[in-house]
Every structure is written in structure tokens, then in C-alpha cells.
Specification:
With 683 residues, the protein is of the alpha/beta class. The protein has 4 domains: 111 residues, no CATH class; 137 residues, TolB, N-terminal domain (Rossmann fold, 3-Layer(aba) Sandwich), CATH 3.40.50; 195 residues, Alpha Horseshoe (Serine Threonine Protein Phosphatase 5, Tetratricopeptide repeat); 154 residues, Serine Threonine Protein Phosphatase 5, Tetratricopeptide repeat, CATH 1.25.40. It contains 31 helices and 10 strands. The strands form 3 sheets. Strands 3, 4, 5, 6, 7 and 8 form a 6-stranded mixed sheet that branches. It starts with a helix and ends with a helix. About 2% of the residues have low confidence.
């Protein structure tokens, strides 16, 4: 053994072992920090650690065998008195010892490091929170002036916007921080934990007689320590300068890197017109509130009027043009006004932004949204997002839109990943969580869909849409209509006025349960203008037709479908390449017994917007074509289309095929029953 130890010293194996252990530990720690920043999967880090451990005995073996002399690698000569056999035996002892050390280190690392077992459902209990992370909480309004609340909101939001442009910071988005109301006692440590940040900024705003008083304080929520505080009392016209000073001070306090471009962006005033800024803040709030809102149409149209007034006052107000383009594009995409004129309004706003500031992140984000919502030009929209992401590193909409594009192009897993990344910047955004749940619904991964909706309910337990959608998981997954029935009755008992928000899902439930009385109740609650869903305008007469058909009232169904046809045909005549209303017209014609017209229209719609071009809307058109074939007696063709649409991600479920009267013409057909069975929950 004495000779073996001396040999280790002579061959300098000790130095290599110590250097490798120190360097390897440092590299493993660095990888544990860097790989998550690039959203590398957990297994990539695991493999990296294993490779570092495996290479340890190899490094020892190489140190024993070779030496570096005069800049050249040479084989190490044996010590006097050593034999080849004894040296070979010592080498294997060394390798065995190195392997034992590596295995022990690997086992210890695995014991102390908790790995996630299911990235979709289980989440790390205590993620590492960067010291350069912050949430700007709503400021308290101390003003007596009428409508000063909008002004206070604007002050807070402008500081948040400035900070979000700094790539070296993690800044929580507005949607999440606005849930923590000002003027009440707030547990900052708890809030910071929920948002995943180390610091929070609080403040107050008072506007009076042409002056503004702003107080702000930066708090390290990990220790409840006050890091910085300042009070400003200036002329009202200096409010934007104050916001810039606060943002720059916070960047300095958090020791974040600030590039010249980021500094210039922070110092730029959004507008010189405070009245225009007030209009902008009001409009932005309306637009942000449209998700799953019964007032989406009213909000968007009111927002466009406010924003047009804002840019009328300040024609160089870039952010107002951004929100105007966003509102116009959504009006078009949601079929609230799916006309060339509406698309032209959106295009004009985008082009104005590109003329005013061709290098701004907002201009490229607006162009990406315009190409997505207005033209379904997903590849070019993605190109614009790459540019926008560099200028807007903390903007969750960039990541969310990337997720939208991914799923439209059939990349469902990538879509979920992008949306989860958006959620890191906006962790309490119900809309993002609901969009993730929709992805799981289309993938027919109902367990994960339910878990995601449960996350929403922990944030907003009274949210009507989420409560109903969560209950509908059982209907879709197991063809069990009892949970949604119970939840809808509970909601209506709590608030009879909620009926308007429930019409879509309640109609599906009533039809699946063959409940004519409930279906008639829903019909009474549907607006005379009908409804808009997934880019399609459904006349009220359409709903009257499907209810009458389900109840076996043939003449009533014919009269309703005839009235619906007149409305839908008008849209098709004006926009012959608009696939969704053409497909709806085909279903209506099938209900009217116009077989040839129905099949021609359904096929043409699928040709106009195939699944290869749009994985979501294209699949819906295939489902409609299957329905047309079913209603016109072409059972084989109907089953062929159903086989296609049930073999790809799409929300046509086991429960819908089992229960919905739409598919009654196919019941008993062996091919149809086989398709239904293929979607049945696995025991």
C-alpha cells in the first residue's frame, strides 16, 4: 500500500482528483442554474450529472497512465522496482476507488436534489427565486378628483412597463399583480411567493390642483426589509419623468444590467398629452377584460372609440396605436365584424406604428398579432415574434402568441411549453391557464386538463366559466353529464343573472341530456343577435333549429334552419373564401335536406382551410363535414371523416359522440360504434 500511495504521488493522481472534484462540482452547479434558464428538460440536467460522475474514474485512469512533459503528452514511466503486473493491479484498484467515489457522489446528489416526476402535473415545491425579480403592486389612490383611479393605475403600469423592458430583470405582468388590491393590508411575503419574486414595489399617488405626489418603496419580501423609498411632489406634467426616475432607481437597487437601448426606452415618454393617456388606460383595461366575458363585443368597440380619441389628440402615441390594432384585429378574428374594412382599420394602426417606431417591440408584436388574427399567416407572425421578444423580454403575450401559433401548426407539446413560460411571467393569469387546459382538452388528456382547471379555481374559486368547464371534464372524458348539470344548477341558484354567461355550455348539456325544457330555457336567454364562437357568427335561428331537430319537431326545425340560412348565406355571398360560415351553411343545408348543396359546401370549406394549414379550425371543419354526411344519410363517408378527426388532437370527445343528438343518425353503425369505443376512458 505504501508503494501504491507513493506511486499516486509520483504520477500526480492526487492533483487531478482534487482538481476534478472541485471543477466538476462547480460545473454541476453552473449547469443547474443555466439549463433551466434555457428551459432544458429535467432529464438533460440528470444526464449531465451522470456524465460528470462517469468521467471521474476515467480522469484518474488517464492521470495514472499519462503525463504532460515539455508540452507533450507522454506515457508515465514505472517507478523503480515496479513491475508491469503490479502497476496494472494498482491501476484497477485506482479505477475501483474512483468509481466508488463517483457513485457515492451521484447517490448523494440524487438524495439531496428533488427531481420532478411529472412535468405537467407536479411542480417543484421551492423554485429558486432570482434576486433580480420584482412585482409592481397596484398603487393606492389618495386623490379626491373624479376618475383619478385611472391616473393612479397608469402611474403604476408605466413603472411596470419601464422595468419590463430590462432583460436582466424578471418582472411580473400586469394581469397577475392587479389582483392584489391597494388600500388593504397585504402580506408581501405571501404575495411574493405566489408570484415567484424576491422584491415588491408599493406606492401611493395623489393628484390635486395640477400637482402630483407619488410615494414608492421597494421591499425585499424574503426579509421584509425596506430596500429603498422616495417621495416626489411635482407639477402634474412631470409625472412621466417621475415614473422614469423610479424605474431607473429600482434597476440600480437590484443591480441589474441596463443597456443603452433599454435606458433610452425607459426614458421615452409615452405621450405628452395626459388626457390622451387617460383614454389609453381606460381602453387597455376594457381590452384586457374581454377574455371569456359576455361583454367582449361591447368592450372592444368601446375601446376602439377611446383609442381613436387618444390618437386624435396625440398622433404619435405609439402605445395607443398598439392597443387600437389589437382591438381591431380581435374584433375581426372573433367574427364580431369579420369584414375587409375591419381588417383595413387594424392594418392602418399597425402601419402607423411601423412608421413611427419601426424598431419598437410593440410594433413587431402588433404586426405578429395582425398576421395571426387577420391572415392566419403563422410563419410570418413567428418571424415578428422573434424580433418582438428581444425588445420585450418580460412580455407574456409574446410567449402566449408563440403558443397559439404552435398549436395552430399542430405542435401541441411545444404550445404547452410556451404557455407555461408565459405563466412564469404572469403566474395568476386565468386566461393563460385556461388556454393550457384547452390544449390538454384537444389532446384528450383529461386528467391534466382537470388539474390545470383546478389551478385556476385556487386563484378564482367563483369563476363561472372555469367551474363549468371543470365539471364538463366528466362529460367529455366519461360521458357523465351529472357533474356539469349539478354545477350549472348551483351557479343559477347563486345568481340567476349568470344565465347569459352559460348559454353555450348549457345548450350542449341540455341536448346531451335530451332535456327539452332546459333547451327552451337556454333559447330564451340567447340574444336575438345570436352568438359568436371560434370565429363563427351563429344566428339565434340556428339554435332554434338544432333544438327543434333534437326534439323531433321537423317543421319547426325546417322553419328555423330556413331563417338561419338566409343570414349565413349573406355572409358567404359577401366573403366566399371565409371557410367557417361556408361550413355552417353546409350543416344548415343538410338539416334542410339540400344534400348536394350541403356536401359541396362542406367539402369546399375543408379545402379552403385544411388541417395542415390550421390544426384547430381545420379539424372543426372536418367535424362539420362528418356531420353533413351523417345528416344526409352518407354513413360511410361520415365515419371516414370522424375517423380522421378523432385520430388527431381535437376536442371532439367520447362524451360528445356518446350523448349528443347530432350523431343519432349514426348510432348502431358498426364503424361509428368502433370510433366511439376507441375514445372511451381506459380502465
Amino acid at each position: 500500500m505504501k508503494t501504491f500511495v507513493q506511486e499516486l504521488k509520483t504520477r500526480r493522481v492526487y492533483r487531478v482528483a482534487i482538481a476534478y472534484l472541485v471543477g466538476g462540482s462547480a460545473v454541476v452547479q453552473l449547469a443547474g442554474t443555466v439549463l433551466p434558464m434555457f428551459h432544458a428538460p429535467e432529464w438533460a440536467q440528470q444526464i449531465f450529472v451522470v456524465l460528470v460522475a462517469i468521467c471521474f474514474p476515467i480522469a484518474l485512469m488517464l492521470a495514472w497512465t499519462f503525463d504532460l512533459r515539455d508540452g507533450a503528452i507522454e506515457k508515465t514511466p514505472s517507478s523503480p522496482g515496479s513491475t508491469a503486473l503490479s502497476n496494472k493491479r494498482r491501476l484497477w484498484i485506482l479505477v475501483a476507488l474512483g468509481s466508488f467515489v463517483a457513485a457515492s457522489g451521484l447517490a448523494g446528489y440524487w438524495f439531496w436534489h428533488s427531481w420532478r416526476t411529472d412535468s405537467h402535473i407536479e411542480h417543484a415545491a421551492a423554485p429558486v427565486i432570482s434576486g433580480k425579480s420584482i412585482a409592481v403592486l397596484p398603487f393606492e389612490n389618495l386623490s379626491d378628483e373624479k376618475d383619478a383611479g385611472y391616473f393612479t393605475e397608469g402611474v403604476q403600469d408605466e413603472i411596470l412597463t419601464h422595468l419590463s423592458r430590462v432583460a436582466d430583470l424578471k418582472v411580473i405582468s400586469r394581469s397577475s399583480v392587479m389582483q392584489y388590491k391597494s388600500g388593504v393590508a397585504r402580506n408581501l411575503r405571501e404575495i411574493a411567493t405566489e408570484l415567484g419574486v424576491a422584491h415588491v414595489l408599493e406606492g401611493t399617488v395623489q393628484r390635486s390642483r395640477g400637482r402630483v405626489r407619488i410615494s414608492a418603496q421597494l421591499i425585499d419580501a424574503r426579509t421584509d426589509a425596506h430596500v429603498w423609498a422616495e417621495h416626489y411632489d411635482r407639477e402634474l406634467a412631470d409625472v412621466f419623468a417621475i415614473q422614469t426616475e423610479v424605474a431607473e432607481e429600482i434597476v440600480s437597487q437590484l443591480k441589474a444590467r441596463l443597456s443603452p437601448v433599454e435606458k433610452a426606452a425607459i426614458e421615452e415618454r409615452p405621450t405628452h398629452d395626459l388626457a390622451a393617456y387617460d383614454l389609453y388606460v381606460r381602453a387597455r383595461g376594457l381590452i384586457n377584460a374581454i377574455a371569456f366575458s359576455a361583454r367582449a363585443k361591447e368592450n372592444l368597440f368601446e375601446a376602439t372609440h377611446l383609442l381613436q380619441d387618444a390618437v386624435g389628440r396625440d398622433p404619435a402615441f405609439l402605445l395607443a396605436y398598439y392597443q387600437l390594432a389589437r382591438a381591431q384585429d380581435q374584433i375581426y378574428f372573433l367574427a364580431l365584424d369579420h369584414t375587409p374594412d375591419r381588417l383595413a382599420f387594424a392594418d392602418a394602426a399597425v402601419q402607423t406604428m411601423l412608421r413611427l417606431r419601426p424598431d419598437s417591440g410593440e410594433a413587431h408584436l402588433a404586426l405578429a398579432q395582425h398576421r395571426y388574427w387577420g391572415y392566419r399567416d403563422y410563419d410570418r407572425a413567428r418571424e415578428e415574434l422573434v424580433i418582438a421578444r428581444r425588445a420585450l423580454p418580460n412580455e407574456p403575450l409574446v410567449l402566449l402568441l408563440a403558443g397559439y401559433i404552435d398549436r395552430r401548426q399542430g405542435r401541441w407539446e411545444q404550445s404547452i411549453q410556451e404557455m407555461e413560460r408565459a405563466l412564469e411571467l404572469d403566474p395568476r393569469n386565468l386566461f393563460i391557464l385556461q388556454q393550457i387546459s384547452f390544449n390538454y382538452e384537444n389532446l384528450r388528456r383529461y386528467k391534466e386538463m382537470a388539474a390545470t382547471l383546478d389551478r385556476v379555481l385556487t386563484i378564482a374559486p367563483k369563476d363561472i366559466d372555469t367551474r363549468v368547464q371543470r365539471a364538463f371534464v366528466d362529460l367529455e372524458w366519461r360521458a357523465d353529464s351529472r357533474p356539469p348539470h349539478s354545477v350549472i344548477q348551483e351557479i343559477l341558484a347563486e345568481d340567476p343573472g349568470a344565465m347569459a354567461e352559460l348559454t353555450g355550455q348549457w345548450m350542449i348539456l341540455a341536448l346531451c341530456e335530451r332535456d327539452g325544457a332546459a333547451a327552451r330555457q337556454v333559447l330564451a336567454a340567447i340574444s336575438s343577435d345570436g352568438s359568436d364562437d371560434a370565429g363563427v357568427k351563429y344566428p339565434k335561428a340556428w339554435y332554434e333549429g338544432i333544438v327543434a331537430r333534437a326534439l323531433g319537431h321537423g317543421e319547426e326545425a325546417r322553419a328555423a334552419f330556413t331563417a338561419a340560412r338566409a343570414e349565413v348565406e349573406r355572409t358567404v355571398r359577401e366573403q366566399p373564401t371565409y371557410a367557417q360560415p361556408l361550413s355552417l351553411l353546409g350543416v344548415i343545408d343538410a338539416g334542410l335536406g339540400r344534400k348536394e348543396d350541403a356536401i359541396r359546401e362542406g367539402r369546399r370549406a375543408v379545402e379552403l382551410l385544411p388541417v395542415s394549414q390550421d390544426a384547430m379550425s381545420g379539424a372543426a371543419l372536418v367535424e362539420n363535414l362528418a356531420l353533413i354526411y351523417a345528416w344526409t344519410g352518407e354513413k360511410e363517408q361520415a365515419c371516414n371523416q370522424l375517423a380522421v378527426v378523432t385520430s388527431i388532437p381535437y376536442d371532439l370527445s367520447y362524451g360528445a359522440l356518446r350523448l349528443h343528438p347530432f350523431w343519432d343518425p349514426l348510432r348502431g353503425d358498426p364503424d361509428f360504434e368502433k370510433i366511439v369505443a376507441s375514445l372511451a376512458p381506459k380502465k
